[in-house]
Hints:
The protein is an alpha+beta fold.
Amino acid sequence: MHPIRRAGRRLRALPVLLAAAALASPAPVRAAAPGRHALGVNIAAPSDWDPTQPYADAMKSARRFGSVARPYDEKAAVDARGWPTGDAGVVVMVGVPHMAGTYRLTFTGQARVDAVNTTDRRTRVGRTSRDAGSNTTSADVVVGPAEQNLFLTFTGQAGGVKDVRLMRPGHGPTELFSQPFLARLARFRVLRFMDFLQTNSNIQVQWADRSLPGF
Length: 215
């Protein structure tokens, strides 16, 4: 995902996290409840290689779309919202263990979807279906037990696929943050957002640099 889009997504999620932080940091200071640490925690910057994987929709921390042959090159032509305008590939996760399970993929358009550069032969795309009325394609992306990478390619859709979502196992379409991520945060009373928002390297300068709603 493009750095500007990454930062914009984090900024849109900030009110939710700040509310959680406020609830987790009552005043005056008192002893931590059993199971909670009277300490703060840094939240890592979301990325495809971050083991935290904070979002319920894995596409929210994916890289910018790349070519089909090299999804990691981030060279696919994209529209104003960041969706590809032709055949493309995308890096969803790299070097992230313990992410096995069946992910639910949906997108606007009709394209062939493949999992490439896998490290586990059991990683695959299956149960593909299409709703012609809404022009929506759905599929199961099965991530094998030994898999640590997830690269997807989308081919055959004129104008490229749009609105790609990849919900993690056990997560519904309305969930923003992953359940394991929230469970880990619940142990702490203070959250630090410097890395999450890339305070020291945020490249957004102008209002036009922001990510638009809906992506």
